[in-house]
Amino acid sequence: QVQLVESGGGSVQAGGSLKLSCAASGYIFSSCRMDWYRQPPGQARVLVSFISSRGDATYYADSVKGRFTISRDNAKDTLFLQMNSLKTEDTAVYYCATGCPDYLGSIYWGQGTQVTVSS
What we know:
Layout: E1 3-7, E2 10-13, E3 18-25, E4 34-39, E5 46-51, E6 58-60, E7 68-73, E8 78-83, E9 92-98, H1 101-104, E10 113-118
Parallel strand pairs: 2-10
Antiparallel strand pairs: 1-3, 3-8, 4-5, 4-9, 5-6, 7-8, 9-10
């Protein structure tokens, strides 16, 4: 079965950095686009970034462009999100998700990891 397990969240002061990881299993990781979403308190879940299956194309929401970097290691079935220059408005639960519903038949989500940025 498909499993996604995020790690790397925590509490940091504004201007700091965190690196999130998402370990995937149960499917051919290199066949799927992978996505990062976030859900701030009391708000809807929104797409932050995605990366193509081979890692040669990326997308970033305007709110994180220039500060966040998505990457993947297909040899280790792991997705990353490097977050720099963090702002209080980046506080949210961050989720990784598979971005290939045609291949897997559904979108799969990790359990989420909390990122809290304080001023």
